[in-house]
Amino acid sequence: KLGGLFLCLVLLALFRHSASDGKVHNYLQDRQIGLWGKPRNVALSVDQVMNHLNFDVEYNGTSDELVSQNMGLYKEVYGKKIDEPKTAKLTYNQLHSVEYELANATLLTLVRNKELEDIVFTIRQIEETWNHQFHYPYTFMNDEEFTEEFKQTVKRHTSGECYFAVIPSAMWAKPAHIDATKQKQGVAKLQDNKVQYAGMESYHNMCRFNSGLFYHLEELKKFKWYWRFEPATNYFCHVDYDIFKFMEDNNKTYGFTISLYDDPLTVETLWPVTLDYIRANPHSVNPNGAFKWLTDVNQNPDITKQANGYSTCHFWSNFEVANMDFYRDEPYSKWFDALDKNGGFYYERWGDAPVHSIGVGLFEDKSKVHWFRDIGYHHSPYSNCPNSERCSRCKKGDFANSELDNQNCLSNWIKYEMTFKDLQQY
Ligand code: GDP
Ligand code: MN
Q1: ipTM score here?
Q2: Pocket test for ligand 1, best of 111, 118, 205, 320 (most atoms within 8 A of CB)
Q3: Which residues contact 268 (CB under 8 A, 6 or more apart)?
Q4: Which of 132, 156, 235, 296 has the fewest CB atoms within 10 Å of its CB?
Q5: What are the domain boundaries of the chain?
Q6: pLDDT digit string, tens, across residues 90-103
Q7: Could you tell me if the CB of 26 is within 6 A of ligand 1?
Q8: Rounded to two decimals, what is the model's pTM?
Q9: Whose CA is nearest to atom 15 of ligand 1?
Q10: CA-based Rg of the chain, rounded to a whole angstrom?
Q11: Main-chain phi, psi angles of 270, to 5 degrees
């Protein structure tokens, strides 16, 4: 009996080894945790959390060399021909049955009346590549009333119900505790450094609202899932399965397509303020968080230093699919309250993308984060374009002009946070 068991183990080991993906496997093998090596979900102490976040792997090359190595890894992984996810349960409505039961979900966008043409441009692509099969509802949010023209026009292009939400000013406007002098100084510093939108208060409002408030809107309370989209973005690939049910059935919290660096000046103190918070609340940190992706210092050392230990790597939030209950629950919402109290949305220009990303990276198990390799997407100037028969109009494997290669940190996500199983999912 023991001999048989031994043989099984040897075969299993051989199988796992031979199923490797060349170079990718080398990066991952120390994390191809065996059947028993799954990290246990025990609350961490302050020291344990700080140890996780003190990630400083020795790297002996230049950061340029690393950029090209990392781009190579990205291309190796993303150059692979893909179709639908292989290892997951997928739900279809190919017969377009009216009986189809939708997930508790909405397509969601924050948009201005003047962006009508651009939002229709994007809706048409979402419908054509995906939603014509499901008719998921849309929720349009705005800090002002939508015009009749806006409402009637988007209704003509959407196959699902449309909801229009006017954001109450308590959720949108700058909160009373923001110190005007400090804000002016902060904005002036950003402007001196040519930071985009520094002096545009509505942009700061938007970032704060998208970071920690939208999911409390009356109109969104009934929903659990959202797919955020933005005017003038592209969706290139046909997807036939239900994206929201994919999230639900495969135990995912957050889905993304693009991961890149941020301007460190916009988030200079976001990381220190967060560290203060988790020193007081270490139990809120998930033991299987995406710590290395958040703190890598090798590919863009200057950025990580300027952002005081945060790599600035984030999921680009102009496309995201996520579970709002994650934001509504304590670890995220209490941390957001601390950020809001600090005022960095106005004294700096903290973006909703780094805030969502740090929140997900620290407070959620990284196995619940999904890279939608099959969703062909573009928001200027970056793309996610899979090598798939299902796509048209985008260049396969394309990220951006090669001078922007050093802005891509998806390779760090691949290297540090994805498991072998994740890599095999397409
Ligand atoms: P960028 O992608 O960071 O350059 O910023 P965008 O201009 O694309 O803004 C991000 C999203 O917020 C887009 O969907 C915009 O339509 C929306 N947005 C930005 N500012 C405002 C605003 O003042 N009011 C409304 N209603 N939407 C806004
Ligand atoms: Mn945009």
Answers
A1: 0.99
A2: 111
A3: 306, 307, 308, 348
A4: 156
A5: 105-423
A6: 999 988 888 899 99
A7: no
A8: 0.91
A9: 111
A10: 22
A11: -60, -40
